[in-house]
Amino acid sequence: MYGRRKMHALLRREGWEIGRDQTERLMKLAGVRGVRKSKRVFTTRSDKAVALPADLVNRRFVADGPRKLWVCDVTYVATWSGFAYVAFVTDVYSRRIVGWNVAATLKSEILPMQALDMAAWQSGGRLDGLIHHADHGSNYTAMVYTDRIQELGAVPSTGTVGDSFDNAMAEAVNNLYKTELIRQQGPWRTVEQVELATLEWVWWWNQERLHGELDMRTPIEVEQTYYAETQTLLSPTG
Protein backbone atom coordinates (compact mmCIF):
# COMPACT_ATOMS: atom_id res chain seq x y z
CA MET A 1 0.00 0.00 0.00
CA TYR A 2 2.75 2.46 0.94
CA GLY A 3 4.84 4.66 -1.28
CA ARG A 4 8.40 5.75 -0.49
CA ARG A 5 7.53 8.29 2.20
CA LYS A 6 5.30 6.05 4.31
CA MET A 7 7.45 2.98 3.78
CA HIS A 8 10.43 4.93 5.11
CA ALA A 9 8.42 6.08 8.14
CA LEU A 10 7.24 2.52 8.81
CA LEU A 11 10.76 1.09 8.66
CA ARG A 12 12.02 3.77 11.04
CA ARG A 13 9.19 3.02 13.47
CA GLU A 14 10.19 -0.64 13.40
CA GLY A 15 13.79 0.17 14.33
CA TRP A 16 15.59 0.18 10.95
CA GLU A 17 18.28 2.82 10.45
CA ILE A 18 17.52 3.66 6.84
CA GLY A 19 17.27 6.78 4.70
CA ARG A 20 14.42 7.73 2.39
CA ASP A 21 16.55 7.41 -0.75
CA GLN A 22 17.76 3.97 0.31
CA THR A 23 14.16 2.95 0.95
CA GLU A 24 13.24 4.06 -2.55
CA ARG A 25 16.12 2.10 -4.10
CA LEU A 26 15.21 -1.07 -2.22
CA MET A 27 11.57 -0.72 -3.23
CA LYS A 28 12.57 -0.44 -6.88
CA LEU A 29 14.83 -3.50 -6.58
CA ALA A 30 11.97 -5.46 -5.05
CA GLY A 31 9.48 -4.23 -7.64
CA VAL A 32 7.35 -2.60 -4.95
CA ARG A 33 5.48 0.69 -5.27
CA GLY A 34 2.58 2.39 -3.54
CA VAL A 35 -0.93 2.00 -4.91
CA ARG A 36 -2.26 4.86 -6.98
CA LYS A 37 -5.54 6.62 -6.31
CA SER A 38 -8.35 6.62 -8.82
CA LYS A 39 -9.92 9.86 -10.03
CA ARG A 40 -13.34 8.25 -10.24
CA VAL A 41 -15.86 9.63 -7.76
CA PHE A 42 -19.28 8.50 -6.58
CA THR A 43 -22.05 11.03 -7.17
CA THR A 44 -25.10 11.30 -4.94
CA ARG A 45 -28.71 12.18 -5.66
CA SER A 46 -30.31 15.10 -3.88
CA ASP A 47 -33.95 15.51 -2.93
CA LYS A 48 -34.84 19.03 -4.05
CA ALA A 49 -38.06 18.98 -2.04
CA VAL A 50 -36.18 18.82 1.26
CA ALA A 51 -35.05 21.92 3.18
CA LEU A 52 -31.29 21.51 3.53
CA PRO A 53 -29.05 22.36 6.51
CA ALA A 54 -26.48 25.11 6.03
CA ASP A 55 -22.82 24.41 5.28
CA LEU A 56 -21.11 24.96 8.64
CA VAL A 57 -17.72 23.71 7.44
CA ASN A 58 -17.06 25.79 4.31
CA ARG A 59 -14.26 23.44 3.21
CA ARG A 60 -12.30 23.96 6.45
CA PHE A 61 -11.76 20.39 7.59
CA VAL A 62 -10.07 21.18 10.88
CA ALA A 63 -11.02 20.49 14.50
CA ASP A 64 -9.29 21.19 17.81
CA GLY A 65 -10.08 17.78 19.26
CA PRO A 66 -11.91 14.48 18.70
CA ARG A 67 -15.71 14.36 18.51
CA LYS A 68 -16.02 17.96 17.32
CA LEU A 69 -16.53 17.46 13.56
CA TRP A 70 -17.46 14.30 11.70
CA VAL A 71 -17.67 13.91 7.93
CA CYS A 72 -19.80 11.26 6.26
CA ASP A 73 -20.16 9.83 2.79
CA VAL A 74 -21.34 6.77 0.86
CA THR A 75 -19.60 4.76 -1.83
CA TYR A 76 -20.33 1.47 -3.56
CA VAL A 77 -18.68 -1.82 -4.53
CA ALA A 78 -19.80 -3.99 -7.43
CA THR A 79 -20.20 -7.66 -6.49
CA TRP A 80 -21.40 -10.72 -8.41
CA SER A 81 -24.67 -10.58 -6.48
CA GLY A 82 -25.31 -6.84 -6.87
CA PHE A 83 -23.99 -3.60 -5.39
CA ALA A 84 -22.68 -3.31 -1.86
CA TYR A 85 -23.11 0.23 -0.51
CA VAL A 86 -20.67 1.45 2.12
CA ALA A 87 -21.08 4.36 4.55
CA PHE A 88 -18.24 5.83 6.60
CA VAL A 89 -18.23 8.34 9.48
CA THR A 90 -14.79 9.91 10.00
CA ASP A 91 -13.54 12.12 12.81
CA VAL A 92 -11.81 15.15 11.28
CA TYR A 93 -9.32 15.64 14.13
CA SER A 94 -7.84 12.15 14.18
CA ARG A 95 -8.95 10.75 10.79
CA ARG A 96 -10.35 7.79 12.74
CA ILE A 97 -13.28 5.99 11.14
CA VAL A 98 -15.70 6.05 14.07
CA GLY A 99 -18.64 4.40 12.31
CA TRP A 100 -19.29 2.39 9.17
CA ASN A 101 -21.83 0.10 7.57
CA VAL A 102 -22.11 -2.12 4.50
CA ALA A 103 -25.56 -2.92 3.09
CA ALA A 104 -27.33 -3.92 -0.10
CA THR A 105 -29.47 -0.75 0.04
CA LEU A 106 -29.00 3.01 0.20
CA LYS A 107 -32.03 3.55 2.45
CA SER A 108 -31.32 6.20 5.05
CA GLU A 109 -32.59 4.18 8.00
CA ILE A 110 -30.39 1.23 7.06
CA LEU A 111 -27.12 2.30 5.44
CA PRO A 112 -25.96 5.66 6.88
CA MET A 113 -28.03 5.56 10.06
CA GLN A 114 -26.47 2.33 11.28
CA ALA A 115 -23.02 3.84 10.64
CA LEU A 116 -24.05 6.92 12.63
CA ASP A 117 -25.45 4.82 15.47
CA MET A 118 -22.20 2.84 15.65
CA ALA A 119 -20.24 6.10 15.89
CA ALA A 120 -22.59 7.49 18.54
CA TRP A 121 -22.42 4.29 20.60
CA GLN A 122 -18.61 4.43 20.58
CA SER A 123 -18.84 8.03 21.79
CA GLY A 124 -21.04 7.24 24.75
CA GLY A 125 -24.43 7.71 23.12
CA ARG A 126 -24.56 11.53 22.96
CA LEU A 127 -23.06 13.90 20.39
CA ASP A 128 -23.90 17.26 21.93
CA GLY A 129 -22.41 20.13 19.93
CA LEU A 130 -20.76 17.90 17.32
CA ILE A 131 -21.05 19.01 13.67
CA HIS A 132 -22.16 16.24 11.33
CA HIS A 133 -21.14 17.13 7.77
CA ALA A 134 -22.27 15.34 4.60
CA ASP A 135 -23.29 16.25 1.05
CA HIS A 136 -26.82 16.82 -0.27
CA GLY A 137 -27.40 13.14 -1.00
CA SER A 138 -30.99 12.16 -0.27
CA ASN A 139 -29.89 9.38 2.10
CA TYR A 140 -28.26 12.04 4.35
CA THR A 141 -30.96 14.70 4.04
CA ALA A 142 -33.94 12.40 4.58
CA MET A 143 -36.05 13.46 7.55
CA VAL A 144 -35.55 10.15 9.35
CA TYR A 145 -31.78 10.67 9.25
CA THR A 146 -31.65 14.38 10.12
CA ASP A 147 -34.06 13.74 13.00
CA ARG A 148 -31.63 11.12 14.32
CA ILE A 149 -28.71 13.58 14.12
CA GLN A 150 -30.62 16.12 16.18
CA GLU A 151 -31.89 13.47 18.61
CA LEU A 152 -28.26 12.63 19.39
CA GLY A 153 -27.50 16.31 20.03
CA ALA A 154 -25.40 16.89 16.91
CA VAL A 155 -25.77 19.72 14.39
CA PRO A 156 -26.27 18.80 10.70
CA SER A 157 -24.20 20.49 7.98
CA THR A 158 -24.21 19.87 4.23
CA GLY A 159 -22.05 20.70 1.24
CA THR A 160 -23.27 20.54 -2.34
CA VAL A 161 -23.88 17.59 -4.63
CA GLY A 162 -21.13 16.86 -7.12
CA ASP A 163 -18.63 19.22 -5.50
CA SER A 164 -15.79 17.09 -4.13
CA PHE A 165 -14.26 20.07 -2.31
CA ASP A 166 -17.31 20.58 -0.07
CA ASN A 167 -16.88 17.11 1.44
CA ALA A 168 -13.27 16.51 0.47
CA MET A 169 -12.12 14.56 3.51
CA ALA A 170 -14.99 12.07 3.37
CA GLU A 171 -14.44 11.54 -0.34
CA ALA A 172 -10.71 11.03 0.29
CA VAL A 173 -11.55 8.22 2.72
CA ASN A 174 -13.76 6.61 0.06
CA ASN A 175 -11.00 6.94 -2.53
CA LEU A 176 -8.40 5.33 -0.28
CA TYR A 177 -10.83 2.56 0.65
CA LYS A 178 -11.27 1.75 -3.03
CA THR A 179 -7.51 2.05 -3.71
CA GLU A 180 -6.20 0.10 -0.72
CA LEU A 181 -8.85 -2.59 -0.42
CA ILE A 182 -11.47 -2.91 -3.11
CA ARG A 183 -9.29 -2.79 -6.21
CA GLN A 184 -6.57 -4.85 -4.55
CA GLN A 185 -8.65 -7.83 -3.46
CA GLY A 186 -11.50 -8.10 -5.97
CA PRO A 187 -13.46 -9.43 -7.70
CA TRP A 188 -16.06 -9.47 -4.95
CA ARG A 189 -18.71 -12.17 -4.81
CA THR A 190 -21.17 -11.04 -2.13
CA VAL A 191 -22.10 -8.11 0.06
CA GLU A 192 -21.09 -10.17 3.09
CA GLN A 193 -17.59 -10.67 1.68
CA VAL A 194 -17.22 -6.90 1.26
CA GLU A 195 -18.48 -6.36 4.81
CA LEU A 196 -15.90 -8.70 6.36
CA ALA A 197 -13.04 -7.19 4.34
CA THR A 198 -14.19 -3.68 5.26
CA LEU A 199 -14.18 -4.61 8.95
CA GLU A 200 -10.52 -5.67 8.66
CA TRP A 201 -9.57 -2.59 6.61
CA VAL A 202 -11.20 -0.18 9.10
CA TRP A 203 -9.27 -1.81 11.96
CA TRP A 204 -6.02 -1.41 10.00
CA TRP A 205 -6.86 2.20 9.07
CA ASN A 206 -7.48 3.14 12.70
CA GLN A 207 -4.88 1.04 14.48
CA GLU A 208 -1.90 0.55 12.14
CA ARG A 209 -2.05 2.69 8.99
CA LEU A 210 0.35 5.64 9.00
CA HIS A 211 -1.27 8.91 7.87
CA GLY A 212 0.79 11.64 6.30
CA GLU A 213 -1.68 14.26 7.58
CA LEU A 214 -1.00 13.01 11.12
CA ASP A 215 2.80 13.22 10.95
CA MET A 216 3.04 9.50 10.17
CA ARG A 217 0.99 8.47 13.18
CA THR A 218 -2.15 6.36 13.39
CA PRO A 219 -5.58 7.79 14.29
CA ILE A 220 -5.58 5.87 17.57
CA GLU A 221 -2.16 7.30 18.50
CA VAL A 222 -3.38 10.83 17.77
CA GLU A 223 -6.43 10.42 20.00
CA GLN A 224 -4.44 8.79 22.79
CA THR A 225 -1.99 11.69 22.75
CA TYR A 226 -4.83 14.22 22.82
CA TYR A 227 -6.54 12.65 25.82
CA ALA A 228 -3.24 12.16 27.67
CA GLU A 229 -2.36 15.83 27.21
CA THR A 230 -5.88 16.89 28.20
CA GLN A 231 -5.68 14.78 31.36
CA THR A 232 -2.33 16.36 32.23
CA LEU A 233 -3.75 19.85 31.88
CA LEU A 234 -6.76 18.99 34.04
CA SER A 235 -4.77 17.29 36.79
CA PRO A 236 -4.00 19.32 39.96
CA THR A 237 -0.26 19.25 39.23
CA GLY A 238 -0.68 19.85 35.44
TrEMBL record:
Pfam families: HTH_21, rve, rve_2. InterPro entries: HTH-like_dom (IPR025948), Integrase_cat-core (IPR001584), Transpos_IS3 (IPR048020), Transposase_IS3/IS150/IS904 (IPR050900). Residues 62-227 form the Integrase catalytic domain. It comes from the Bacteria. GO terms for biological process: DNA integration. NCBIfam families: transpos_IS3. Involved in the transposition of the insertion sequence. PANTHER family: INTEGRASE PROTEIN, TRANSPOSASE INSF FOR INSERTION SEQUENCE IS3B-RELATED. This is IS3 family transposase IS3501. It comes from Leucobacter soli.
